[in-house]
Write a structure and sequence with these properties.
two-stranded antiparallel sheet; alpha+beta; 2 domains
C-alpha cells in the first residue's frame, strides 16, 4: 500500500481486518531478486488468503476484482505483460500505520510500545547472526513468543479488538514470523 491508498482506509473501502503490517526488520521476499531479505521499512499490504496469498478481493466466480473501482495504486499499475510501472514505485512512498493512526493517540502509543518491546528487527538480526536453527536458543524464542501472545490477548480483551485486526495494528505475530522464517 502506498500513501495515496490512505483514502481507501479512511473511507472504509479497506478495514484493519483487510490489512497486514509487515514490520521493519521482518523477513520478506524481494520479488525483484526472489530472495528473502530483512525489510528496511514497514509496509502495509492487503491480507492474502490461502497458502499462495491470493488477494482477498478477487472474486473467483466472477473472475474479477470486487473493489476494482477503488483498488490500490499497485493494482492499478499491475500489467502482467509489462511490470515497469509497478517496479517504478516498488518500496517507495509506502503507507505506514503512523499515516493512519494519529501520533499521540493511545493506540499509537500502544503500537510503539509493542514495537519497542517486541522489536522484530533486533530479534531477526540476532537470529540471522547464528549459523542456523540448530544454534538458536529455542527457550528464549519461545518465551518472547509467549509474552507477545499474552500481550495480543490482553489487547483484544481490554480494547475489544478482533483477532483479524491485530495483524494490522501490531504486525504479524512473532509466532507467525518464526513459523515462516525459522524456529
Amino acid at each position: 500500500m502506498h500513501t495515496p491508498d490512505r483514502v481507501l482506509v479512511v473511507n472504509g473501502t479497506l478495514s484493519p481486518a483487510d490489512l497486514l503490517t509487515i514490520r521493519r526488520g521482518e523477513p520478506g521476499l524481494d520479488p525483484r531478486t526472489n530472495r528473502v531479505v530483512l525489510l528496511e521499512n514497514e509496509l502495509i499490504k492487503i491480507r492474502g488468503v490461502n497458502k499462495i496469498g491470493a488477494c482477498k478481493f478477487f472474486d473467483s466466480q466472477m473472475h474479477a476484482c470486487s473493489i476494482y473501482g477503488t483498488r490500490p495504486v499497485e493494482c492499478k499499475l499491475l500489467k502482467c505483460w509489462d511490470t515497469r510501472e509497478l517496479e517504478s514505485i516498488f518500496m517507495k512512498d509506502l503507507l505506514q500505520r503512523k499515516d493512519l493512526i494519529p501520533a499521540g493517540a493511545a493506540l499509537f502509543e500502544l503500537i510503539e510500545n509493542h514495537d519497542k518491546v517486541f522489536d522484530i528487527k533486533k530479534i531477526t538480526e540476532a537470529l540471522s547472526g547464528f549459523p542456523g536453527p540448530g544454534s538458536w536458543n529455542f527457550s528464549v524464542i519461545e518465551k518472547v513468543v509467549r509474552e507477545e501472545r499474552r500481550f495480543r490477548q490482553k489487547v483484544m480483551k481490554d480494547l475489544s479488538f478482533k483477532e483479524a485486526d491485530m495483524d494490522f495494528f501490531f504486525g504479524r505475530s512473532l509466532e507467525e514470523v518464526f513459523a515462516v522464517s525459522g524456529p
